[in-house]
Design brief:
This protein has 332 residues and is mostly helical. The chain has two domains: 215 residues, 3-Layer(aba) Sandwich (Rossmann fold); 81 residues, Tyrosyl-Transfer RNA Synthetase. Helices cover 55% and strands 8% of the residues. It is built from 15 helices and five strands. β1, α1 and β2 form a beta-alpha-beta unit. The site of adenosine-5'-triphosphate (ATP) has 20 residues, from α1.
Length: 332
């Protein structure tokens, strides 16, 4: 039997997961966990690239717990997927160091997310760690010889750099690594409730997978819609209107969505009705996630155990790859 191909993807434990994560990457993880051998990384070392203060590091432990709870709630199965903590696999830092010799500084400077993060967090000059964020990510992916990386659109450039590193390594030392492909979600970038282009926990424009029905209602009713529309009888725009983007992504009754769109464009339906229907659709979508969360919330030790076991499995892979790498390079 041919070995299954591998997926590696993950998240920084910087807070709770939201709807953007779901459509951008989580849905693909759940969908593919049977067909691929999956590794889901809790990238706690990557957190340090933007949160180096001790008080911020102190929050990571709780965030890790919440992240795994989010994973289990959406249906990631720890019996199928390896969920592991980056810092428990220190071999990855060694591999990242070796990879850092294979990429030029300007190549890292050209990665678009660097500029975005510097802009968002008002960073004047990036630390070496932030600059080499994608090099560490390449080490995460290649350490387990990942073939497919389900991520949101914003991460595409990182996977491209991973391929550059894999090619260069293979050219210099022999065929060790695959060339991983990004798998972008059905909604490449979900907009925020404020109409900004990206739902992002740093911006605070999110509906979280852990929000209760009241929170969902409050956030949806306050959502940005079509600013050109003053009265419900004005023809409205559905393109780029986040309320309709969410309807398309989460409402399981697409006929209803089609009808709402047509009525909206003709000025035959008010924002309130469209939003009421969205609240209902989102709660319907979130209910099974909530039910699974309740189940796992009562077993915190099980979550600890999943991380511990997963990290051991990932470390065994890391050691194997590192051994191969050193041999290929002629290092001791
Ligand atoms: P932060 O603000 O801390 O960067 P974030 O909300 O942008 O947080 P990340 O942890 O950077 O989330 O992203 C984790 C994964 O989710 C990545 O694969 C990313 O591409 C994807 N993702 C994040 N936000 C969205 C979004 N709004 N739409 C689609 N995918 C997203
Ligand atoms: Mg981000």
């Amino acid at each position: 039997m041919k070995a299954k191909k591998r997926i590696l993807t993950g998240d920084r434990p910087t807070g709770k997961l939201h709807l953007g994560h779901y459509v951008g990457t989580l849905a693909n993880r759940v969908r593919l966990q049977d067909r691929y051998e999956c590794f889901f990384i809790i990238a706690d070392l990557h957190v340090l690239t933007t949160r180096i203060e001790k008080e911020k590091i102190a929050k990571v432990k709780q965030n890790i717990h919440d992240l795994v709870l989010d994973y289990l709630s959406v249906g990631i199965d720890p019996g199928k997927a390896v969920i592991y903590q980056q810092s428990l696999v220190p071999e990855v830092a060694y591999l990242a160091l070796l990879f850092s010799m294979l990429v030029s500084v300007p190549r890292c400077q050209r990665v678009p997310t660097l500029k975005e993060v510097m802009h968002d967090l008002k960073i004047q000059s990036p630390s070496l760690g932030l600059l080499t964020y994608p090099v560490l990510q390449a080490a995460d992916i290649l350490m387990v010889k990942g073939n497919l990386v389900p991520v949101g659109k914003d991460q595409e450039s990182h996977i491209e750099l991973t391929r550059v590193i894999a090619k260069r390594f293979n050219l210099l030392y022999g065929e060790i690594f695959p060339f991983p492909e990004a798998l972008i979600g059905e909604v490449p970038t979900l907009p925020g409730t404020d109409g900004q282009t990206k739902m992002s926990k740093s911006v605070g424009n999110c509906i979280y997978l852990s929000d209760n029905a009241n929170e969902v209602r409050r956030k949806v009713m306050a959502m940005y819609t079509d600013p050109t529309r003053v009265h419900p009888t004005d023809p409205g725009h559905v393109e780029g209107n986040p309320v309709f983007v969410y309807h398309e992504a989460f409402n399981n009754n697409q006929e209803e969505v089609e009808r709402l769109k047509q009525r909206y464009q003709k000025g035959q339906v008010g924002d309130v009705e469209v939003k009421e229907k969205l609240v209902k659709a989102l709660n319907l979508f979130l209910d099974p996630i909530r039910a699974r969360r309740r189940k796992y919330e009562s077993q915190p030790e099980a979550i600890e155990e999943i991380i511990k076991k997963g990290s051991q499995t990932a470390q065994a892979e890391a050691q194997k790859t590192l051994k191969e790498v050193k041999k290929a390079m002629g290092l001791a």
